[in-house]
Write a structure and sequence with these properties.
The chain is an alpha/beta fold and 449 residues long. The protein is built from 17 helices and 14 strands. The protein binds uridine-5'-diphosphate-glucuronic acid (UGA).
Length: 449
């Protein structure tokens, strides 16, 4: 595929919009299709509708120069496309399985307008076996198309960096030429990456990423396996943290030393309130259910999921031990996004903790540097949101549930002002030094410390 080719991205979520914005800086004409009018308006005006470091200047540049074309129309965007990336949402069904209606719906709609020979790329996280079903869908419509699975590994909050300085690009499919076409798109991106990083105002990375081509089903399985393994590491760390709590060990010291073994690695061994977000919870349940469909009982992931589900309750229990009855107590929860660096509050542990506290009768105040607005929908009505951490007090306890730099750097003086005399600080993300805070007279409780 030559530069100047047209790429169409279906869906402008974290994955779709980031991919579209970056490819529009890599020599391609890129359509990005977003049906939600409010979101589309934001993109057309040159910004994202979510908080993501460095993305807005890239969108703005692309829209203004005409290489990035936001639209809600398949009819406008699909006919010229040489490559189509499907980045539509894959929410979970109530039973934990993946809801693939958007995946099949996008393929169905795109099939109406695709030109012969187009490469159709699935970037959304889907259960293994989904690609074969989409291929059948295309066969039934007699369209001439090559299907490639190209799973995404970017993290929210560092989406631009991760896409530019990737560890690996994985593309899997039946047709070698189509797989190479997809890998070439990333080679073009790699060639432009330092310029794009400068435009985004982010630091450049050291990585030389791998290009990996695989069978179709391997590519699909690689993605969910990677997320499941990371989730497993977190639940493992949380299980050890519960033991550390009982035996007066510090799980941070334990994981620093354990993670120093190259075979294990330190990443994703941070114990705390458990994982949240739009990916791990649904990818773990999706993997469990797709394994069951294939008569494989992934007990190991069921355990990881159960441990994770119990973590917000474990945090609240710690508070009960300190404060006794929670009814009538005033508690602040800082950190409502599912992690730092994002406004995303989907399946956020901070929100779960706040709602649990309300359940036990506490008066709850919530604060997040970026996520207040998104959190509102999932928070109990009685939770009061504040715009600045120092307006929380006087409170009986503070739960820090997300590792925002702004929380890490709170001075002991500020913590004293927020907390008051006998209040408790629950560090649900283990970002403070227990020794320092205790020496400063703060009732500090971590997770596994
Ligand atoms: C995750 C993966 O890291 C990405 O590689 C993948 O592309 C993405 O899912 C996806 O499937 O789209 P993301 O959900 O953005 O990315 O966030 P992570 O940084 O992985 O964090 C997930 C959750 O785990 C957060 O709630 C975080 O606070 C928690 N976490 C992470 C821990 O509790 N402990 C850790 O040690 C690390």
């Amino acid at each position: 595929m030559s530069k100047n080719s047209t790429i169409t991205i279906l869906g402008a979520g974290y994955v779709g919009l980031t991919t579209a914005a970056l490819l529009a800086q890599s020599g391609y004409r890129v359509f990005v299709v977003e049906p939600n009018p409010k979101r589309l308006e934001a993109i057309k005006s040159g910004r994202s509708f979510f908080f993501e470091d460095g993305i807005d200047p890239i969108i703005k540049q692309g829209v203004e120069s005409g290489t990035l074309i936001p639209t809600d129309s398949y009819e406008q965007s699909v006919p010229d496309a040489d490559v189509i990336f499907s980045c539509v949402g894959t929410p979970d069904n109530p039973d934990g399985s993946s809801n693939l209606s958007y995946v099949f719906g996008a393929a169905e709609q795109a099939a109406e307008y695709m030109k012969p020979g187009v490469v159709y790329v699935q970037k959304s996280t889907v259960p293994v076996g989904t690609g074969r079903k989409v291929i059948d869908q295309f066969k039934n419509k007699s369209v001439d198309v090559q299907y490639v699975s190209n799973p995404e590994f970017l993290r929210e909050g560092t989406a631009v960096y991760d896409t530019l300085y990737f560890d690996r690009v994985v593309a899997g499919g039946d047709d070698t030429a189509a797989v190479e076409t997809v890998l070439d798109v990333y080679r073009a991106l790699e060639a432009h990456r330092d310029d794009i990083a400068a435009l985004a105002g982010i630091t450049t990375g050291p990585r030389k990423g791998l290009y990996i081509s695989t069978k179709l089903n391997s590519a699909e399985l690689i993605k969910v396996t990677a997320n499941a393994f990371l989730a497993l590491k977190i639940s493992f760390a949380n299980s050890i943290a519960m033991l550390a709590d009982r035996v007066d060990a510090d799980v941070v010291e334990v994981m620093d030393a354990v993670g120093a073994d190259e075979r294990i690695g330190r990443a994703f061994l941070n114990a705390g309130r458990g994982y949240g977000g739009g990916c791990f919870p649904k990818d773990v349940s999706g993997l469990i259910s797709s394994a069951l469909e294939n008569n494989v009982d992934l007990e190991i992931m069921q355990s990881a999921q159960a441990v994770n589900g119990a973590m917000p309750g474990y945090i609240v229990e710690k508070l009960k031990v300190e404060l006794g009855e929670l009814a009538g107590k005033k508690v602040a929860v800082f950190g409502l996004a599912f992690k730092a660096g994002t406004s995303d509050t989907r399946k956020s542990p901070g929100v779960a903790i706040a709602n649990l506290l309300v359940h036990y009768g506490a008066e709850v105040v919530g604060y997040d540097p970026q996520g207040n607005e998104e959190a509102r929908e999932d928070l109990h009505d009685s939770v009061t949101l504040i715009d600045s951490p120092d307006t929380a007090g006087p409170i009986d306890a503070l739960v820090v549930a997300t590792e925002w730099p702004e929380f890490r750097t709170l001075s002991t003086e500020t913590l004293h002002t927020v907390l008051g005399e006998n209040s408790v600080l629950i560090d649900a993300v283990n970002i403070y030094s227990p020794q320092e805070l205790r020496a400063a007279g703060i009732r500090y409780i971590g997770v596994g410390r």
